[in-house]
Predict the structure.
Amino acid sequence: MKKLGVIIAVLTMFVACESGPQKRVLKNANGRINNVLVVIKNSEWQGEIGDELRKIVAEPVLGLPQPEAKFEISQIPPENLGSMFRATRSILNIGVGEENSFNIATDVYASPQKVITVIGKTKEDLVKLIQDNSTKIITSFRSADLVSIQRKILKKYWDPAKSATFSKQGYSIKIPKTYSVVEDDGDIVWYRHKISKGESMEIFAYSVPITSEDDENGNNIVATRNAFGKKYIPGEVEGSYMITEEAYTPHVFPINFKERKAFETRGKWEVKGVWMAGPFLSYTVVDKPNNRLIVVEGLTYAPGANKRDYMFEIEAILKTLVIN
């Protein structure tokens, strides 16, 4: 208990120092994207508290062909949180203490870093705090990871001003130079990143006019992307083209995208008439002043490989969308 208290005190001290007149020089954070270090007693990790944490942090990502957890988890007891582990990118401190508390801190030991600390007076209090703050925990770690991966992959990106489509349509996304252009004809943008032989990540951007309230309310997203696939994304066999997987309905969520009404869609794509499929993610943004929907989408084709991190990179790219 004392050791956990010391860790919390040190965290508080570092957070306080951040607001002081002298800015600390922090080491670079380590650890892979979508990985969380859980600092908790071994006995608590193996019991009800650990079970609750695993349900939240290791929840499967929506829209993937095979189950993949949102985060890979490593666990250490508080006394092992030495200098090597303190520089981890995402840290979740859990324990029983004198007061119930939930705290999110940025760049405590390293940068970029997110440290979340959850303390409960009893094990029951702790479980409830974890449950009540589950969305904050996931959102904080994912948001920090998105910023980190954007910094990494967007050091060099294609100039949107030189894109025929972005210039004509008045919107843009930042596409890393590791992607190559497939199509940019003034109506659509299509870029591809080759993962390995026959495997790739694809980025699309296009707009369609708003013709009904159903368009504005996200009820025609599948029909719109199927029409786009039929027109622009042919398969290897004559007459084949990309569609939304027919066996399952994709997950559609209303969201606020940079102060605009929008919809996030996660599901699986397939090629009609050909055995090809994989996950896709799209954002459909309602651009009411221009009476249109702007669609930015990414997908992965990598049979047999884990796809969570590929789709996470795609999400980071799509979220650079700017509408002029």
Observations:
- The mean pLDDT is 91.
- The longest strand covers residues 274-287.
- The CA atoms of residues 184 and 288 lie 24 Å apart.
- The chain has two domains: 2-153, 160-323.
